[in-house]
C-alpha cells in the first residue's frame, strides 16, 4: 500500500495560481521522491494529483469527476483509447467538435488525440447529449482517462 503524506495546501494554491498566471494547463513539482501535479480542467478548476514515486501508485481521481452532490455520475463516459494530447477542434481557431449541451450520435468525432505525430479521431461510443467535457484542449491524456460524459 502506498505511504500517505501530508499535502501542503499553500503549495497547491501557489501552483494553481501559477497555472492561471502563465496560462499553462498543468504543472508538476517533485521533491525527495514525492510528486504533486496540478492541472486545469475545461472550467478552470484545478485538479491535484499527488504520488509517492517510490510506490508509483495511481493518482486519485480528479476533483471535477462529473458527479453530482449525491456522488452519482451524470452520464456515460467516453474514454481515451490511448496516451496522447487531446484536441477539441480540427485546427487552431476552429470551432470545437462538441460543446456541452450538444446532441451527438454514435460514431461522431468528438475530439482528436495526437500520438506519435498522428491525429486520431475519438468517436462517440454512444448517442446522446454532451453533459460535461472533462479535459481541456491541448492537454495530455492517459489511456482510459474519461474525456467527456454523455447523457
Structure report:
The protein has 151 residues and is mainly β. The chain folds into two domains: 1-64, no CATH class; 76-150, RNA polymerase II/Efflux pump adaptor protein, barrel-sandwich hybrid domain (OB fold (Dihydrolipoamide Acetyltransferase, E2P)), CATH 2.40.50.100. 9% of the residues lie in helices and 38% in strands. The protein has one helix at residues 9-22, and strands spanning 26-31, 34-40, 46-52, 76-79, 84-87, 103-104, 109-115, 118-123, 128-133, 139-141, 146-150. The longest helix is centred in the N-terminal third of the chain and has 14 residues, at 9-22. It is elongated. Mean pLDDT is 76; it is low at 42-51 and 53-70.
CATH H-level superfamily of the largest domain: RNA polymerase II/Efflux pump adaptor protein, barrel-sandwich hybrid domain
Question: What percent of residues adopt helix (DSSP H or I)?
Answer: under 10%
Biggest sheet, spatial arrangement of strands:
4-11-9-6
Show unreliable segments. Answer: 42-51, 53-70
How would you spell out the order of helices and strands? HEEEEEEEEEEE
What integer value in Å does the Rg equal? Answer: 16 Å
Mean pLDDT: 76
Strand residue percentage:
35-45%
> What is the global morphology?
elongated
State the domain count: 2
**CATH topology (fold) name of the largest domain:** OB fold (Dihydrolipoamide Acetyltransferase, E2P)
CATH class of the largest domain: Mainly Beta
Quote the distance from N terminus to C terminus: 36 Å
Amino acid at each position: 500500500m502506498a505511504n500517505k503524506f501530508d499535502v501542503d495546501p499553500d503549495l497547491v494554491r501557489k501552483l494553481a495560481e501559477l497555472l492561471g498566471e502563465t496560462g499553462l494547463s498543468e504543472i508538476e513539482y517533485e521533491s525527495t521522491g514525492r510528486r504533486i501535479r496540478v492541472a486545469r480542467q475545461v472550467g478552470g478548476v484545478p485538479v491535484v494529483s499527488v504520488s509517492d514515486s517510490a510506490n508509483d501508485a495511481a493518482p486519485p481521481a480528479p476533483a471535477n469527476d462529473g458527479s453530482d452532490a449525491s456522488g452519482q455520475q451524470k452520464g456515460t463516459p467516453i474514454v481515451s483509447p490511448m496516451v496522447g494530447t487531446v484536441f477539441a477542434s480540427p485546427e487552431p481557431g476552429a470551432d470545437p467538435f462538441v460543446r456541452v449541451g450538444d446532441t451527438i450520435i454514435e460514431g461522431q468525432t468528438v475530439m482528436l488525440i495526437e500520438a506519435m505525430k498522428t491525429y486520431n479521431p475519438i468517436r462517440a461510443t454512444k448517442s446522446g447529449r454532451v453533459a460535461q467535457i472533462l479535459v481541456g484542449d491541448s492537454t495530455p491524456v492517459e489511456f482510459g482517462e474519461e474525456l467527456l460524459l454523455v447523457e
